[in-house]
Amino acid sequence: MLKIIEGFIKKIPRGYYFDTHTVIDYLIQEYHGIYLKEYHEISKNDNYTVNLYHGHIGQLIQQNFTDILVTNNILVKQVGDSWSKNVKNNFSQNTCWQKL
Prior knowledge:
The protein is an alpha+beta fold. The chain has one domain. It has four helices and three strands, in the order H-E-H-H-H-E-E. Strands 1-3-2 form a three-stranded antiparallel beta sheet. The longest helix is centred in the middle third of the chain and has 16 residues. The protein is globular and about 40 Å long. The two termini are about 20 Å apart. The relative contact order is 0.24.
């Protein structure tokens, strides 16, 4: 899944903003099989929710694209929070990023 997220971020022009909900929507629309498989693999107990999984996706962005060890010169920075629609079509808080 990390390579898919990397490919998505590569498509975003430098200086533009995006949020974690946008990345999740992209994964569901374009790679729903991988999205579901990854969820199944990491949700081994009954207490693991979709919200936790989506938080995990945000952590993947933070851990892999905001550090000095940048993958393929892709760098983003967290620029606060965003208020946008989630997969349940409800507005909720999530992380906002800027492509550098």
